[in-house]
Amino acid sequence: MMTTGTTCATLTAKALASWYSPCPHRRISLPGEADLPDTDIRKTGTRHKVAAPVQGGLNCSGEMTGGTVMSDLHADILRSSFLLQHLSEEELSHLLKFARLHRFAAGQMLFQKGDDGDSLMAIVSGHIRISTLSAEGREVVLNILNPGELFGEIALIDGKERTADASAMDDCEVIIIHRRDFMPFLQQRPELCTRLMVVLCERIRWVSALHEDSMFLSLTQRLAKHLLRLAGTYGQPTAEGTMIDLKLSQQELGNILGATRESINKQIRAWEDDGYLKRTSGRIVICNPDALEDATMEE
């Protein structure tokens, strides 16, 4: 399994650097929002085609629609990001003039690897999976992004192609700001450039740590480490332990860790037998976090 993990990390290092978000996760509860007149953007092949305007939200076909973003809630979403958290109210209001809200159905692609990198995105609700394919055609999940997180900054700056696929894990709302609007805003604010450099440095550090894990840690160690990380981000206390409130299949865990579904299943079943964790309603409950922590250090 070490060979598989190493190959995936090596093949996707560039994409990983583009899609890791170092910002703390922030969950934001959304009240019901009135639908806005917007534009239905349909996925045709590997490119986007703009269709006639329709009402905002997920339409009857489950297709993505978008509208103008002008609320305090959406300002809070942008303000929650590391990159934009120091902007003044006036600056945020100015930036929101260029923002649009788009809605995606579960399983829908936001964009694909090779698409033009022409926008910055911020998640209002739902979760986005960032993934790519290895040379052998195996899907590798690079990251799972949460409400309040920004992504697409790198392609936004250099204007080059997207380095990975982005798809909605559940119904999502995403704020989109186009490069043509954001770059002049950035050029007038040198402090934002400095913060972007910090974001890049964090990504380089994370990719380095990920590559190190794939080289030196066993699958057992990597899986234990990842489950603890998920519990720290999505954990909800229950009577039995900490439930990871994110529905991930064993295949998806394997895609994240560069392992087969069978090897993930075998290890999880062993930990269930030992009382480390349990599965319920498609979610994992960590019953003995100390034991999992010890597993990250076992050789």
List the helices and strands and how they pair.
Elements: H1 2-11, H2 13-19, E1 37-44, E2 47-55, E3 65-68, H3 72-79, H4 89-96, E4 99-104, E5 109-111, E6 119-125, E7 128-133, E8 139-145, E9 150-151, H5 153-158, E10 165-168, E11 172-178, H6 179-187, H7 190-216, H8 219-234, E12 235-238, E13 241-244, H9 250-257, H10 261-274, E14 277-280, E15 283-286, H11 289-295
Helix pairs in contact: 1-7, 2-7, 8-11, 9-10
Helix content: 40-55%
Order of strands, main sheet, comes to 2-1-3-4-11-6-9
Low-confidence stretches: 1-65
Number of helices: 11
- H-E order: HHEEEHHEEEEEEHEEHHHEEHHEEH
CATH H-tier superfamily of the largest domain: Jelly Rolls
Mind telling me which CATH architecture of the largest domain this is? Sandwich
Overall, the morphology is: elongated
Measured by DSSP, the beta-strand proportion falls in: 25-35%
Largest sheet: 7 strands, antiparallel
Q: Given this structure, which CATH class of the largest domain is correct?
A: Mainly Beta
Arithmetic mean of pLDDT: 78
Radius of gyration: 20 Å
Distance between the termini: 14 Å
Describe the structure.
By secondary structure, this protein is an alpha+beta fold. The chain folds into two domains: 2-206, Jelly Rolls (Sandwich), CATH 2.60.120; 217-295, Arc Repressor Mutant, subunit A, CATH 1.10.10.10. Helix content is 40%, strand content 26%. It contains eleven helices and 15 strands. It has helices at 2-11, 13-19, 72-79, 89-96, 153-158, 179-187, 190-216, 219-234, 250-257, 261-274, 289-295, and strands spanning 37-44, 47-55, 65-68, 99-104, 109-111, 119-125, 128-133, 139-145, 150-151, 165-168, 172-178, 235-238, 241-244, 277-280, 283-286. The strands form three sheets. A seven-stranded antiparallel sheet has the order 2-1-3-4-11-6-9. A four-stranded antiparallel sheet has the order 5-10-7-8. A hairpin with a 2-residue loop joins β12 and β13 (241-244). The two termini are 14 Å apart. Mean pLDDT is 78; it is low at 1-65.
